[in-house]
């Protein structure tokens, strides 16, 4: 019987790979895994060079504002753009006009964010991270002003990637993320001494600029860029109406990171870096799966809901079963191996054994939320495809309130580990809300 099944394996694999959805998921997943390995090598270089130092703390704070804008505004625009753009295609509408609208909205919000961040930096730093020296604040600002132009590259690259993904060019879209990784490694190897404290910021800027140039060249080559006079039709109105709740949801979700950073900044120097290193493995696990699934599933769900909504729900529930089942097994293994993983990846030079123990415990706590967080992210892609962004905004508000309250309580008793416990509890609770709401929507159809 086993021999018979093994003989059928090549045929089964061939049949599975012929399915465009599975093939695209595998392609993006393999590329993401490869790039994450390179990314981990980059992180080990940073850890070896800087440990849990003041420079690393200030870099994480400096990149927090641009990352916040990217995750709140830029990602929100792209996510609502894809389902409505696909609807416009299916209805034979004016996709060139819709492209123009999305570029105008994206660039407008990006430029406004850059100016606002530049003008309010001093107020922001003293409000969120009080009690530090002037040199500490200056180090943050010097790095921030170098990183801020990345927002332009991120915003345009995000729209370019969306256009490529809707054309099933997932491979090309995925490989653009290699440029920031390779550039940072090059800067750390050869330019660390000459650039000094600005090496991380400069590596971030140049790497993202190269990624943007690559995507622009591909978009122009394949003639996916098609602009026309912006007009407002049904799909444009629907997209713009979904923008405030989607941005509100993303804003409230991203604020959790700010809240955690604020509490970490009140603790010992190195706490911010410890939190960031402690979530590396959980973030690795989440990003691999959600990059592979999320990039493919949003266009896939957007097409399905226009054709057969009930079938789309069926696809969602099957994907959730597989993701939760497999991730639970892997996470248990990861928790038991946390000390070894952190020691292997980071413990060298400035990163001491005490740092390893601290980061490993944070990692164990945060690994527990991975299956729940993955479920939430997949459900969010589905709800975005059916324009249910108002519900997500309310859940995000509840998460923010819960996270703040738990941080206040748990940090008092568990120090920096309380932040990790709070995040894990919030994500588990949030996952239950998302699944319950989605299942309720499904029951209305049957």
Unreliable runs: 1-6
Q: Roughly how many Å apart are the termini?
A: 39 Å
**Main β sheet profile:** none
What is the CA-based Rg, rounded? 22 Å
- Give the helices and strands as they follow along the chain: HHHHHHHHHHHHHHHHHHH
Average of per-residue pLDDT values: 82
Please work out how many helical segments DSSP would assign.
Answer: 19
Task: Give the strand tally.
Answer: 0
Structure class? mainly alpha
In what range is the share of β-strand residues? under 5%
The number of domains is 1
Helix content: over 70%
Anisotropy-based shape: globular
Question: What does this protein structure show overall?
Answer:
With 446 residues, this protein is an all-alpha fold. The chain has one domain (23-443). Helices cover 87% and strands 0% of the residues. Helix 4 packs antiparallel against helix 6 (150-166), helix 6 packs parallel to helix 10 and helix 13 (280-307) packs parallel to helix 17. It is globular. The model is unreliable at 1-6 (pLDDT under 50).
């Amino acid at each position: 019987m086993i021999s018979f099944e093994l003989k059928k394996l090549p045929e089964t694999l061939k049949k599975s790979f012929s399915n465009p959805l599975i093939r695209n998921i595998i392609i993006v997943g393999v590329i993401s895994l490869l790039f994450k390995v390179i990314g981990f090598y980059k992180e080990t270089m940073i850890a070896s060079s800087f440990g849990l130092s003041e420079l690393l703390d200030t870099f994480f704070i400096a990149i927090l504002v641009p990352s916040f804008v990217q995750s709140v505004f830029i990602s929100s625009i792209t996510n609502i753009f894809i389902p409505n753009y696909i609807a416009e295609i299916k209805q034979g509408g004016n996709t060139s006009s819709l492209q123009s609208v999305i570029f105008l909205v994206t660039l407008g919000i990006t430029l406004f964010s850059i100016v606002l961040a530049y003008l309010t930096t001093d107020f922001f730093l003293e409000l969120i991270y009080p009690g530090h020296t002037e040199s500490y604040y200056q180090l943050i600002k010097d790095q921030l002003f170098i990183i801020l132009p990345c927002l332009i590259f991120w915003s345009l690259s995000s729209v370019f990637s969306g256009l490529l993904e809707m054309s099933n060019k997932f491979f090309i879209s995925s490989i653009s993320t290699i440029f920031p990784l390779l550039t940072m490694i090059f800067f750390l190897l050869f330019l660390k001494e000459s650039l000094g404290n600005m090496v991380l910021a400069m590596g971030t800027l140049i790497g993202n600029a190269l990624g943007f140039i690559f995507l622009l060249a591909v978009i122009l080559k394949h003639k996916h860029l098609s602009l026309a006079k912006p007009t407002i039709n049904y799909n444009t109105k629907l997209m713009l109406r979904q923008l405030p709740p989607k941005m509100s949801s993303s804003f409230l979700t991203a604020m959790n990171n700010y809240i955690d950073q604020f509490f970490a900044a009140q603790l010992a120097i190195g706490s911010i870096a410890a939190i960031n290193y402690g979530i590396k493995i959980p973030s690795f696990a989440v990003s691999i799966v959600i990059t592979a699934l999320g990039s493919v599933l949003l266009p896939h769900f957007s097409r399905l809901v226009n054709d057969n909504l009930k079938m789309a729900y069926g696809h969602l529930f099957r994907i959730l079963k597989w993701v939760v089942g497999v991730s639970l097994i892997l996470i248990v293994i990861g928790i038991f191996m946390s000390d070894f993983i952190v020691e292997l990846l980071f413990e060298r030079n400035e990163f001491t054994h005490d740092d390893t123990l601290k980061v490993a415990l944070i990692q164990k706590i945060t690994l527990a939320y991975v299956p729940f967080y993955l479920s939430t992210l997949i459900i969010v892609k589905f709800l975005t495809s059916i324009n249910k962004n108002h519900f997500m905004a309310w859940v995000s508000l509840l998460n923010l309130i819960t996270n703040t309250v738990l941080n206040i309580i748990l940090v008092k008793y568990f120090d920096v580990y309380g932040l990790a416990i709070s995040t894990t509890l919030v994500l588990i609770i949030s996952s239950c809300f998302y699944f319950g709401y989605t299942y309720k929507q499904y029951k209305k159809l049957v």
